[in-house]
User: What shape does this take?
Amino acid sequence: MNATRNQQKIVCLSFIVLFFMNAISTAQNTSDGPVMTGFTDIFMPIQPEQITDNVFKTIGADWTCITAGNEDLFNSMTASFGGWGILFSKPATWCMLRADRYTLELIRKEKTYTMSYFEDQYKNQLLLFGSKSGRNSSKMKETTLTSIKTPLGNLSYKEARLIIECRLIEVTTVNPDDYYSEEGKKFVTDAFAEVNEYHKLVFGEITGVWIRK
Assistant: This one.
């Protein structure tokens, strides 16, 4: 009888140990990398045609947070140039990025990325993403935003109010000879003088749109 009770205690203790080991492992995965569960508890899908934002305000004043990479290595940057529309008969986005952007490198590598938008209270975090390069800084560890993975495996943030997922269509290099305003020509030539390469126009097919519930 005592032997049976001891065996029962051992089995019970084993289950308790396994339970706590699993809990610790789950906590570590959540804190060290992107949150992988609960996305649909926070966000709901809509069609691109259902986006009600004013694109001029959303991109020009609120700014876009562009995120690319995978759960092991990802980076975000801030952009205020770009738009949404139709390309090759599909809903699409476009943005204009400096050729040396680390996020652009990750976009080309992964062929997917997100464009996320936030309420004004998160403006300082967007300023952080825009003030440093993730290539040679630890800015992704400095942000207070909480990374999260979409059902398609793309990365954004739990605090976003609107997330647009994109599949890379095209990266085109701008040519100053194609600019017919002095302002545009000066913009691209000045940037070229800094990095010895012209800006890139990045086009992406919209594969998903999510808004906060």
